[in-house]
């Protein structure tokens, strides 16, 4: 869109029969200031852009257009137009600094506070290390600059050099937020404290994991205790002590299998962790890579730090997007590939494109599924059974029972979402919520149904020895066994995909808000695996699906990927895990590093080829896996 001129219609809101008069008037009146109406918007000077936005003299710009609409908001068409084009932009007065002009007049070493917070962490660290002050200012600020450089140093050390100081916290990934908290703790120089970290390697490239290990050791060496919940092999290898819990998950876990030094864990035969570390079990490299002529090609990608790149995404295989944290992987997939395909499939029209052209060299691809780590439902009522649609079959089974037919209970009586059989005291939630004005809400078990969610008479209907509440409390493994033993093989078959993606241990009625991001992602994957062969060929996009997964679970995940590919689907995946990268059919490596130092294509090809690419940091770490 930005490559259009005013004459060609770069100002979208000046379209149509009536509103185009604004465009015509602007073209006529701007000629007085030699405004180039035929030059693309992205080639205009700042002065020319100011004329287009703010107008000049009798030449009215975009801001005056919306001021006119605001003054006539009583007209519904004006309110609709304002809502359509309203968005966030920098404040004209402070230019996004959020400070008054007089505050910006104060400068340190030639920089205002707004200039400093626009720097990334690496630039800010260099600025404060090289700051030049007179003798008096140096005495006053010595302690302050020492604290600032110390904190910036730790943020840089945990691999966040590419983040700007004014980056909004709600735009950070889980791994970035965790590393900022870690850097804050280290910067405070606490001694004699216990740090508990839950998978700090999430979202980290192997290079960043090395830095993280160094920081964790520093925390330990100054006199702290560091407890880490982790699946990453590199972090395990550096641990002073390992506690392995298992042997498997859910009802098959919960025991301490091993506690001691890493070198002694190899003697423990029950541990799945041991078997993978020792090489008795392994994530096998495919015997051959899938090659296919079908592909998606996107040219001229410009978004955030992506530097006018063109990329080919092969189809009918497993394509991985790799690279350092902040190299542009999420931008490429979330902000370019996903909206480009949605526009192509007609799901919605995105006029402000971040690319010049997209070409899809196949007629088979008809659908896009973006599987992220968002919850599987919008409310706490959503659960794995409802999401994969197996709960409908379970309710039908209960409605077919002789006692249910005698009492004329329909399928809806076995739902906790509608009136009928659910407990009306808690509305089928199983708990009541007490709102605390200044504290977190308190959730108490419902006194009427004792957390069972249904009326007493509904719980009298049983399949085998279990009522509907008992079924919802079964783990996937227990449920499959139960339905098979009761000759309900169709229900057991629908639950099987959950087992295939390594979710044996979750309960059928487990609330969606208690599931991790990785679990939610795998439930979504299971719902597609359960659909069988469909004529629609889909491109699945995954965002770090190995989050929170053990080696054994990654093996199951890859088998699920292969099952999708065998059905004719394609997979594009953002990933850091080397065990998954070595199994890819095609790798697109971005970098070389993060932020301003990223955004370029470092490598495109197979895992065997990337290890010979000296510029690829991913390739250097992948060598030991191949």
Helix tally equals 25
Q: Name the overall outline.
A: globular
Give the averaged pLDDT, no decimals. 89
What's the number of extended β-strand segments? 15
- CATH architecture verdict of one domain: 3-Layer(aba) Sandwich
* Stretches with pLDDT under 50, minimum 5 residues: none
Please summarize the sheet with the most strands: 6 strands, mixed
Overview of this protein structure:
Strands 9-12-13-7-14-15 form a 6-stranded mixed sheet, with helices on both faces. Strands 6-5-8 form a 3-stranded antiparallel sheet, covered by helices on one side. Strand 12, helix 22 and strand 13 form a beta-alpha-beta unit. It contains 25 helices and 15 strands. The chain has 626 residues and is of the alpha/beta class. Helices cover 37% and strands 14% of the residues.
In short, what is this structure?
The protein is 37% helix and 14% strand. It has 626 residues and is of the alpha/beta class.
Secondary structure topology:
Blueprint: H1 20-30, H2 46-54, H3 62-71, H4 76-85, H5 101-104, H6 113-117, H7 121-129, H8 135-157, H9 174-187, E1 194-198, H10 206-221, E2 225-229, H11 233-237, E3 242-246, E4 255-260, H12 262-265, H13 272-277, E5 295-303, E6 306-314, E7 318-323, H14 329-344, E8 357-360, E9 365-371, H15 384-387, H16 390-399, H17 402-406, E10 431-434, E11 442-445, H18 468-472, H19 476-485, H20 489-500, H21 517-529, E12 537-543, H22 551-566, E13 570-574, H23 578-581, E14 586-591, E15 600-605, H24 607-610, H25 617-622
Helix pairs in contact: 7-8, 8-9, 19-20, 21-22
